[in-house]
Amino acid sequence: MHKAGFVNIVGNPNVGKSTLMNQLVGERISIATFKAQTTRHRIMGIVNTEDAQIVFSDTPGVLKPNYKLQESMLAFSESALQDADVLLYVTDVVESPEKNMEFLDKVRRMSIPVLLLINKIDQSDQKTLGDVVEKWHGILPNAEILPISALNRFGTDLLMRRIKELLPDSPPYFDKDQLTDKPARFFVSEIIREKILLYYDKEIPYSVEVRVDSFKEDDRHIDIHAVIYVERDSQKGIIIGHQGVALKKMSTEARKSLERFFGKSVYLQTFVKVDKDWRSSKKELDSFGYNPV
Question: What's the longest Cα–Cα distance across the chain?
Answer without folding.
Answer: 61
